[in-house]
Amino acid sequence: MKKKLLSALLLSTALSSFAQNEEPQWNGKINKSWKASEPQKVEYLKKAKPGAPNVLLILLDDVGFGATSAFGGLINTPNFDRLANNGLRYTNFHTAGICSPTRAALLTGRNHHAVKMGLFPNYHLGADFPSYDGHILPENGTIAEVLRDNGYSTYQLGKWHLTPDEETTDLGPFVRWPSGKGFDHNFGFLGGATDQYQPDLVEDNQHIKPDGRHLNQLLTDKAINYIDKHNSIAPDKPFFIYYATGAAHAPHQVDKVWSDKYKGKFDQGWDVYREQVFVNQKKLGVIPANAKLPERHPLIKAWKDVPADEKKSFAHFMEVYAGFLEYTDYEIGRLVSHLKTTGEFENTAIFIIIGDNGGSKEGSEYGVITKTNRFSNINFTRDEYRKFVLSEFDKVGGKEVASIANYPLGWAQATNTPFKHWKGDANSEGATRNPLIVHYPKGIKERGVRNQYGHVIDIFPTITELTGTPQPELVRGYKQTVLQGISLVYSIANANAPSRHSQQHYCIFANRAIYKDGWKAAAAHKPTTLELFPYSDEPEPTIDGNPDNDIWELFNLNEDFNERIDLAAKYPDKLNELKALFESEARKYNLYPLIDFEHAAIRRKQVLEKQAEKPRQ
């Protein structure tokens, strides 16, 4: 009986999906006699435009602007380098500043609050407010849905993080799984992070057991399998692959063959790293030649002042992170090589977004290894936590323990060179400016650097323009809201074309900003120490919580791209103009109420306590 019930539920879900499809119009004639009737063949499956390219959309996780060698970093990414050298480097591209919001904006072409992903779909954060409940509705269709309805096969691999917790079991409903958002097949994990060797895997609409191989390898093997099966069945049909790695989000786990390549490479510390990367970035032309490096963040020690035992531990954390990221580049390179083998490389548009936000601050002061993340550090004094991390040195990056390894805060700023701050600080370019590589041999005639302003919501219309795919009024019978992104295709052929995306708001954990024609107003919602140093002996900060008391800064990014000089006092009228614009955008896109870190932490604790109270079934 249980099996029959399960089958009925799955069938019902599938049929409800088909029922929403718009039925094509039939224009024949029907009479009583078939001889007097006029048939007309109905084309239920649209075909893609002749010669339409395949699309490979790659999104990395928790990688700052200055991490990869493709953008001046000290971590070797030879495959990214080759694609960038033979394609385009976008230097002024932006994300939402944290995981799920970036992914929701990327796939829907709409701002994340507008599609109800103000933060995350898990732990019910802010679920009592419309723009935070984590339920992307069908009127905000995805790029996968549009491409599939126009003749593409669609595949999702890796991190999803767009399914509400209560919908993640094998009973569904599957409307917010990849299969419900336009993907013919999917293979990856639904949450925000997972163990790299024992990932919480799903394939299509069910959980499966991993086999012990690294997640990066599993994803690439599956992607190659998808391509081969696709080509054996429909070689003339284009495909869309969304490949979202778990890397380099915590847990940082990788075979020692990769991390050992970096032994001793970071012994000089994060201050030297920043200086070397800054020089590299100028040589590459991805930052202005007259740029200046911001001061080290006051919460981070100068490397020369770090005790020797901590230096050894901190450098090792970075060795593991670097090996993890280089290995990710290797596996993506293996996928790209397969496209060459199958002869599809020249007609595949590849987009690589290096990070869904800047480097992660979640490793806090000393780094994280096992079950000692920032939500449980309160069980330790600062000194106890320090000693614990140092004692766990050999476990960093390993697969023998339930690792959640993440590097210390100093490396977050270093890998975000040339910017300030880090993941989640949506007021800062350090959280929201991420590199973009575009490679498309048949569509890109002039290689080089592009400095036009862009945002993840621009990728959707860019893909539809490149593929010649019209944006439909209806998807599965639902009238679609207007896309808020602007295609970047105009910039592909013209490096000097003026930016068309002239205005953009940001808001994560009440940290917020508004950009308009090169000017940016930004407000940080404090206290930062609540997030970064949650030790039991850390004095509780005084929390105001009133966003009206946050201090706004003003930057001219045309002259000061990395926000070194606050012009708020010099140009109060400009600041007030931008603050008023932010208020207008906040009302338009449902940014209020501003859910901050304190609220999110309280909600999470409440949910976990409630779950613990439930009796075992």
Automatic annotation (TrEMBL):
PROSITE patterns: SULFATASE_1. Keywords: Calcium, Hydrolase, Metal-binding, Signal. Residues 53-468 form the Sulfatase N-terminal domain. CDD domains: PAS_like. Belongs to the sulfatase family. This is Sulfatase. GO terms for molecular function: hydrolase activity; metal ion binding. Coiled coil: none annotated. Residues 1-19 form the signal peptide.
